[in-house]
Amino acid sequence: MLTNDILSQWDRENFFHPSTHLGQFARGEGAQRIVTGGEGCHITDRDGNRLLDAFAGLYCVNVGYGRTEISEAIAKQARELAYYHAYAGHGSEASITLAKMVMDRAPDHMARVYFGLGGSDANETNVKLIWYYNNILGRPAKKKIISRWRGYHGSGLMTGSLTGLELFHKKFDLPLTQVIHTEAPYYFRRPDLAMTEADFVAHCVDELEKLIAAEGADTIAAFIGEPVLGTGGIVPPPAGYWEAIQKVLARHDILLVADEVVTGFGRLGSMFGSDHYGMKPDLITIAKGLTSAYAPLSGSIVSSAMWEVLARGTDENGVLGHGWTYSAHPIGAAAGIANLDLIDRLGLVENAGKTGAYLNRAMAVALGDHAHVGDIRGEGMLCAVELVADRETRTFFDASATTGAKVVGAMLKRGVIARAMPQGDILGFAPPLCLTEAEADHIAGVTAEALREVLG
Ligand code: PMP
């Protein structure tokens, strides 16, 4: 039996962790947690802690931990057929069944799903399909992709470029030149506090129009956005935003990609964020909630209109030159089937809406009066608490004070995991969709205690 000390040492000496301060970790500083198990909304670790995971891993364990329905489906699939590829018309019963289940749930105008492994590769697929589409339509110059500042779309070369967070660009020579960014629909941080929501939507539209005019609509292929900004701060859009943006895109023949890696399969209290906000995307990115992260699997769902052009493209040019060895992996597909069944059976989409609203209200009651709470916002089972140095002027705390991270640390001491979002002092909450009201009350209570400990 490995002791904690040995594991900890092996970890520090051998393991190159993602999104981690490498030098600190190697020197034995900074957080280290070796997770051993989980049940419902809780995880356990090697130090004997049992923690309420109010971020569902990386907002992905939507059905909660320890669901034997999924682990048994994975084991059964591994015994029968652990792997076969999906190239040249091959597949498995699991991948075909899951494709049918996804398309039964997707908005009506969508036609097919392509399966990948994670959200980043699904967005890489989307951009390639968009470029292919415009080449088939004889518009080789129409290639740029518009993303929003604070958007998160992955951390590959193209997808890290789409991501509108400085940390993902700095010293990586990103963004690539084909990606341009526009205003985030972040009402709390609007440029002029006198703006109403409607004024601010008009401002976002204006910024988009200006960008399109400056670059030329004939050079712009697509606009990508999360229905609710996630990693960039959990920011639901102002009322009317998506309707107004879609009008601009339609006028300039620009495709819309709804990145539903976080919002897909129920997190907002609707099956898809596109349904929730009346979006009519040409492509939808799915990942996390597709399998609740029990196995890696993602997807790109394409509209009927786009599908027809792609199919015509292969008639003219031969086989689509795009595929991963693990596309539509049978084990991921088996996990996806069991997961979507469970979401239906437990009514988790409804619970996300209902208990998510309860969590947001509980936060408002517990923290709303605190002098350093600037904004409490959310949608469905997503909630953010934005901390400010001054409530009136909305000034930020000095970044070096790491105020948000300190509050998250004080919560962890009390057994609750929240996430300090990467830009600004924003506490993020995205619990499993099976959260109960009692658990929501507990999260809100612990957040209030931690805030008082750090900020008085
Ligand atoms: N899109 C969105 C909206 C995401 O939140 C994420 C991951 N947080 C990704 C894409 C990238 O997914 P992955 O980390 O699985 O590559």
Report on the structure:
There is one protein chain. The protein is of the alpha/beta class. Helices cover 41% and strands 15% of the residues. It is built from 15 helices and 15 strands. The strands form 3 sheets. A 7-stranded mixed sheet has the order 4-10-9-8-7-5-6, sandwiched between helices. Helix 4 packs antiparallel against helix 12 and helix 5 packs across helix 12. The protein is globular. 4'-deoxy-4'-aminopyridoxal-5'-phosphate binds next to helix 6.
Structural class determined from secondary elements: alpha/beta
Strand runs, count: 15
The portion of residues forming beta strands comes to 15-25%
Topology as H/E string?
Answer: HHEEEHHHEHEHEHEHEHEEHHHEEHEEEH
Looking at how many chains there are and whether they match, the oligomeric state comes to single chain
> Uncertain regions: pLDDT < 50 for 5+ in a row?
none
Question: Which cofactors or ions or other ligands sit in this model?
Answer: 4'-deoxy-4'-aminopyridoxal-5'-phosphate
Topology (SSEs and partners):
Elements: H1 4-14, H2 22-26, E1 35-39, E2 42-45, E3 50-53, H3 56-59, H4 68-81, H5 93-105, E4 110-116, H6 119-136, E5 144-148, H7 157-162, E6 179-182, H8 197-215, E7 220-225, H9 241-251, E8 255-259, H10 273-277, E9 283-286, E10 298-303, H11 304-317, H12 330-345, H13 348-367, E11 373-378, E12 383-387, H14 403-413, E13 416-417, E14 419-420, E15 426-429, H15 437-455
Parallel strand pairs: 3-13, 5-6, 5-7, 7-8, 8-9
Antiparallel strand pairs: 1-2, 2-3, 4-10, 9-10, 11-12, 12-15, 14-15
The structure holds 4'-deoxy-4'-aminopyridoxal-5'-phosphate.
4'-deoxy-4'-aminopyridoxal-5'-phosphate (PMP) is lined by residues 58, 118-120, 123, 152-154, 226, 230-231, 259, 261-262, 287.
